[in-house]
Model the fold of this input.
Amino acid sequence: MMKTLLDALRDEIHYPISDGHLENRLFKRGLMPNAICDVDVFNSPEFIGAVADSLFMLIAAPNFSEADKSFSGLNIDAILKQANKLYNSIGESEKVLEDKPMVYIGG
Done:
């Protein structure tokens, strides 16, 4: 079965993130989303970095619910730990979350 890098990244994240965000994470790492994924690319620092970037982007996003997608129940600590494990594996610095102001909309 042939899988693109975008397909592989989507499968690695397991959360409903828009393809545009995932494509941007791949572009940032110098990878083309529609390129065929093989073992060498899958295990490359670039792809591993794109996975870590996607995880970090997921937990750094605001908590919200829309239609049938809810991001408010994520285990942020576990996801951050996994992202930092990936960053460490490719020799990059760990990421930390900054405090964000809370915004409440509605009643």
